[in-house]
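Q: What structure does this chain adopt?
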Amino acid sequence: MVEKIPMTRRYSFVARVPDEPGTLHRVARLLKEHAVNINRIQYDHRIDRNTVFFEVTGSAEGYARVVEELDRIGYLQTGLPTLRLLTLYVWLPHRPGGLFEFLQEVTDARTNIVAIDFDDRGVAPERVELTLNLSESLAIETLLERLKARYRLEIVEYDPTTTRLDDTIYYVRLAEQIRELIGGADDRFLLCLLQDINHVVQELKNRGRDPAETFETCLAAGRRLRETQKEGFFADIQQLRVSEQVRLWCFQLPAGGNTYLLDAGDDLVLVDTGFGCYHDEIVRMMQAQGITDLSRLSRVVVSHADADHSGGAGLYSATALMHPVTHRIGCELSRAYGSRSQESVLEAVYTTLINLFSRYTPATEIRTFRTEPLGYREGFAIIDHLPVGDLVFEVLEGHGGHMHGQCYLYEPDHGLLFPADALINFDSLTDERRNYASIAVYLVTSVNVDSDRAREERQALLRLVAKTDARLASVGRRCLVAGGHGAVSVLEQGRLVSLGEPVPYRPGG
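A:
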């Protein structure tokens, strides 16, 4: 008879353990008893004294028994406590055992001490200042009544927010800050997200990064997007005539990539959308420029799947055009899909975070470009054509340096190139935009999923621009480079230089 071997799967859970010797050993023994193997464990007493992250592999039955036992002994974290802090003055009898008796009352109420301050040579020698974390206390009123019956009390502050918490509940505070940024989420979702963020912290810590800085960097992206919406929104605008029929609008948004509009009179084509959270502001900005009839919008071209270029596609009624892989990445949820970095946890978690913070809304009505080459241009396959007014763009397939599935639009007769994030005039970025871009660099170490290919693509695109300039010189035209970030530029002695001075825009300005 052949023995049936149980199938194993990968699971994750968050344990909240007492800050005392032997607790981690107790969890490890429990996993061993049920033949569940530890794949990843992360705990740092300096960050959070009680929270431990586990990823394990085992049978469904074994894992279920582990979870059941962890829940029974109170080690399984399945929710996030409501955070409440109470600071009070207590006048204690100055005798042996006075503080002990008071702390016994606190312990009996299952209340944790966040801070304590006492000095018998201070200005109030019998007064103790205490800050209590009442998150897990079931009877605050009962506790206060018992304390008042024995001691003189004065409540200094009651703070139900997360702003004054110590490191014993660091992950709880982080979860509440994320909940505030994304506009609400249930505890189960946030615990899964914390598991992912912790994996990033562990990975970057192994590369010498400070965990606290990593947490703060994760939150910085969400804060920046929130503060640059509505009345905080701004942009820099260029308007250029590129042919008899077509005008080009370039809108540099507060954070992330540009959005472009090709206006052919009776037809509008959007190239990249910016973050989804900017959609309403973008529409109002276009209306302020006289582009009031968006029913003329026939197509939305998505150069690649990063949220700052594709995240608003589903908010427009027009059909979205993109590479098939770009559509796939929108489903796979990792910007590294299809690359040699595909298994990178940094890429996967960054994609999840930025999509959440930016209200990523992928397109629902989609037409994908062909992938069979129709020809080649400077080593790039021409996979489709896109007519707009009197322009006919070649759709060039990228090599997967910045992201797999990234495409470029090139109009050879009038000299207009949309190179997405493969070719950018970094000198034209403001300090604010440059600082925001550095967040992604910190969290994924490089914005390119394949840096070697990205360098090759950049050089090939620069050669294409130079050859276009040479060919169009006789008619007095230049190749306009409309990069994924920064100003529309031209090539001068091997460097991209802004074409004119963008006009600043602010709502109501």
